[in-house]
Amino acid sequence: MEKTLAIIKPDAVKKKLTGTIIKRIEEEGFDIIELKMTRLNKEEAEGFYAVHKDKPFFNSLTDFMSSGKIVLMVLERENAIEKWRQVMGVTDPALAEPGTLRHKHGFSIERNATHGSDAPETAEWEIKYFFPQ
Fold first, then answer.
1. What secondary structure letter does DSSP report for 56?
2. For residue 41, what is the domain's CATH number?
3. Which end of the chain is more exposed for a tag (fewer CB within 10 A), N or C?
């Protein structure tokens, strides 16, 4: 079994899509082993996205991620990272496959409803960032 971090971003929480997205997660065979709703402050968002600190979108991304409530989850299943990325779709909702969460609920590359870890090492770091126990 593999674990991945999933985030329902502020845009999707504001649109009241939390239940819809969690239902899809469960339908796709994931077990939700940790879950919490929170609101990041700017420093927490900057720490989480520190890998992007030198990119031009860093400030707008961290402003957005600290703009409202988010839902953090640790998902578990076989091939969890790859499967969650398939369910989400590619980063740009305009290019995401029909039926994916980002195609259906995303607005832009930044405001794309969900986040997911992209590799086992990233998943481990991201999970520990939000669920240190």
1. T
2. 3.30.70.141
3. C
Total domains present in the chain: 1
pLDDT tens digits for 44-81? Answer: 999 999 999 999 999 999 999 999 999 999 999 999 99
Going across the sheet that includes 2-8, the strands are: 31-39, 69-77, 2-8, 114-116
Residue found under tokens 């030198």: 54
- Asked about 115 being catalytic, the answer comes back as yes
Q: Which of 79, 86, 70 is nearest to 129 (CA)?
A: 70
Radius of gyration for the alpha carbons in the chain, expressed in angstroms and rounded = 14
Given the residues 52, 103, 105, 115, the one annotated as active site: 115
